[in-house]
Specification:
The chain is α+β, with helices and mostly antiparallel strands and 501 residues long. The protein is extended and about 115 Å long. α1 packs antiparallel against α2, α3 packs across α4 and α4 packs across α6. It contains 14 helices and 11 strands. The strands form 4 sheets. The chain has a 4-stranded antiparallel β-sheet, with no helix packed on it.
Length: 501
């Protein structure tokens, strides 16, 4: 690298430092990927995480909502993620309070489970969703909008009927309820307000400013004013957000990186669909013969043909013939192009390609490998949902149950384990049930896993499974039904044949 005047001056005064400086400049020069050239246009992100969200957060949210409303593939991506993160029955909970000796208190666990089942019938303030439905709505808003809020309400509240034994409810709030445009610098040692969230000096949320009414209805959100919001302490608010940078206050849609790809694919499919419809409307033309046979006196005559099966053209003039317009549609390359785009969308959003394309090709090993890799992503997102929504809700529910007297904690129970629980997200489905069952049975026989762990991974509750199995065996015995009637029926012909011999 050529030296300049400064390099020469430094070399004269401090040759050792000049050598180090030249080496550093040479090392920097090696990173050609950071250089913008005529053939390589580089766009840089130079803003802070909150600054970037401030500029694009609301627009991304609005575009993602429109996409979900109008594009079937976007709906499929969201539905696939919800089905594998939350599932049809929601994320299950198995209470695990422990006694002082470390063993699980089964009696207390069953009492908690009874109260929890009662609460899950009407957990939120509008009384329109049960707990699994509420979880799906929260997950949908989180994935589509990038974030979702919920307020937890304990005890008496104006005009609120909890409707459950434990006086505890949640209020689900979309991202619009917390004003993105409300920012305030720190004053007098107090924390700052960033996009509607009060943060202390360490960046931890201390309060949330929430609109009193839906800002998208009426004039509530036209201009921000302090009278339009209420200040909720952070201890009463749940905030689940999709973030990609440290200290990012607000979340961004899971569609953020693939919005343009969705739009391109939608436009391309629409163009091909219109072209196919035009191609299906067959059109023909009359090809004139030799110019010597052309009759100018008959050129103004209107001639039309209506195609019908088995028709015969008997009015062609000398030298004329019928031709048809070939549009080369439908396009044979459409499927390959579409699948390529869907694979890129799957990589950017999380679900597996087979799930959103509804294409299940390949061997058992290939399908299972895709499923295993996909469920690693689903499990990661489910863990985020549990940590920000399900676990805090359950812990506050237990506190409300104790405070209201609905849950009496017996003596000898370890106080710090009362709200302990196992959280059960949807399990990975079995592609080949016989192979999967044999593999799990082998692992249990060799003590690599336990029976309860297998049941939990299948989405069940070990206690419920054990009780149901015991009751079923008792009913079989009462009705003189063998424990394994199917196996006994298979053995009967063999026993009869041996007796004849």
């Amino acid at each position: 690298m050529a030296k300049n005047i400064i390099d020469n001056a430094i070399e004269y005064v401090a040759p050792g430092y000049a050598l180090k400086r030249m080496q550093a400049r040479n090392i920097i020069a090696y990173y050609e990927a950071a250089k913008s050239t005529r053939k390589q246009k580089l766009t840089r992100a130079t803003n802070s995480p909150n600054g970037e969200v401030q500029q694009a957060g609301q627009s991304l949210r609005q575009i993602a909502r429109h996409l979900e409303q109008n594009h079937d593939l976007a709906v499929g991506v969201i539905n696939t993620l919800i089905a594998n993160i939350v599932g049809p029955n929601g994320i299950g909970i198995e209470p695990q309070p422990r006694k002082a000796d470390g063993t699980i208190d089964d009696v207390l666990a069953r009492r908690i489970l009874d109260l929890w089942k009662d609460w899950t019938m009407a957990p939120e303030v509008t009384r329109q969703h049960d707990w699994p439905s509420a979880q799906r709505m929260l997950a949908r808003s989180w994935l589509r909008d990038g974030e979702v809020f919920a307020q937890t309400i304990t005890g008496n509240a104006a005009a609120l009927n909890h409707g459950t034994k434990v006086p505890f409810s949640i209020e689900m709030l979309e991202a619009d309820y917390v004003p993105m445009e409300y920012n305030q610098l720190a004053t007098n040692g107090q924390g700052q307000i960033v996009q509607g969230i009060e943060l202390n000096a360490w960046g931890a949320p201390t309060a949330y400013h929430v609109y009193k009414a839906n800002p998208l209805e009426g004039s509530a959100g036209v201009m921000f004013g302090s009278a339009d919001t209420r200040r909720l302490p952070a201890s009463a608010v749940l905030h689940l957000k999709n973030v990609v940078r440290i200290r990012q206050a607000r979340g961004v849609s899971v569609f953020a990186s693939v919005l343009t790809r969705f739009d391109d694919l939608k436009d391309y499919e629409e163009s091909e669909r219109i072209a196919a419809k035009i191609a299906a409307s067959m059109a023909g033309y009359i090809k004139k013969g030799s110019p010597d046979l052309y009759d100018p006196d008959a050129s103004g005559e209107a001639r039309g043909m209506k195609f019908a099966p088995g028709m015969i053209f008997d009015d062609l003039r000398p030298g004329e013939e019928i031709g048809t317009i070939d549009t080369n549609r439908p396009n044979p390359n459409l499927l390959n192009y579409r699948n390529g785009q869907l694979k890129a969308i799957a990589a950017g959003t999380g679900p597996t390609f087979s799930s959103i394309a509804k294409t299940y090709d390949g061997t058992y090993s290939a399908q299972r490998q895709e499923l295993v890799e996909g469920y690693a992503m689903y499990a990661t997102m489910a863990n985020e949902f549990v940590g920000r929504i399900v676990r805090p809700v359950y812990e506050r529910f237990i506190a409300a149950a104790i405070a209201s007297g609905q849950l009496i904690v017996p003596r000898g129970t370890a106080a710090d384990t009362i709200d302990d629980a196992a959280y059960l997200p949807p399990s990975m489905p079995w592609i080949d049930p016989k192979k999967e069952a044999e593999a799990w049975g082998m692992l249990e026989d060799r003590c690599y896993v336990s029976g309860p762990e297998i049941i939990r991974k299948r989405g069940g509750n070990p206690i419920d499974t054990l009780e149901q199995q015991a009751r079923w065996l008792r009913e079989k015995a009462d009705n003189d039904v063998p424990v394994n009637a199917g196996m006994q029926q298979q053995q009967q012909p063999q026993n009869t044949q041996e007796a004849d011999q």
